[in-house]
Design goal:
The structure holds 2 protein chains of 2 kinds. Chain A is mostly helical. Chain A is 83% helix and 0% strand. The mean pLDDT of chain A is 93. Chain B is 55% helix and 10% strand. Chain B is globular. Chain B starts with 17 loop residues before the first helix and ends with a helix. Classes of the chains: A mainly alpha, B mainly alpha. The interface between A and B is large, with 42 and 39 residues.
Amino acid sequence: MLLSEFLTSVLLLAGAFFFLAGTVGLLRFPDVYTRLHALTKADNVGLGLMVLGLALQAESWAVAGKLLLIWLLVLLSSASVAHLIAKAARQKGIEPWKQ
Amino acid sequence: MHTNDRGQCLPFTPRYSVTICLRAGLIRAVLFSLIWWVLVDGAMASWPVGVPVVLLTTIVSMALLPPFSWSLIGIIRIVPFFLWHSLCAAVDVARRAFHPGLPISPGLYYYQWHLPPGLPQIFMANMVSLLPGTLSAELADEYLCVHVLDQTGAFTSDLSILEEYVAQLFALNLTVDRSKKI
């Protein structure tokens, strides 16, 4: 039990770190496309680690399954929404930032 | 011979045969039952509602997304590939976000499809956005416009490796198309 609580803490902290990284990327990256990179990738892994950490504490398989389902739905929606925002930006003629 | 309800002949479509529809319907019904079981926390009393819901969902799903070919080995291979590479993607983007020098050199890249249009392309376009350094920005039948975070990276070989995995997932063979392109 103690080991699973320790693992949960580590996974939740790691998840929080990736959420922070995603937000720092959102603030520091120069244009809409690069910001989408930061948000989709970092937040998906952040949520995935949190879901994994919480699933270790789930009292039944159904609860763990529900957490997994949440993660899969967020994966699908964030990938689709990132694509739609990038597509809309391209249609508006927003040029990618260049060094 | 396949006929519709007015007795006209339909073109031969092997993927929509009765056996394949039944098999796909059964697999989806099992999957939806599992999701229902998860949503109600395994409460047995909920099945009088759950069974009609699962049946209705299966019918709607078969109407909206007809059966397609897929492979179990493809699923088993793509899941660890996806998990590992999305972790790499997050570590990579976190490193660039925290790095004082902000080491990025973004650009657009047009990737020629070897996959057929439809579900395989849409699936891969979504995967691309979650894998290291790439973001799908525009989806066309012939190409995928990819925004890359770092043009110096090996993203072209990454994309063709991903395409192979997706092809295997949908039980497709890309070698014929590839020889045609080159």
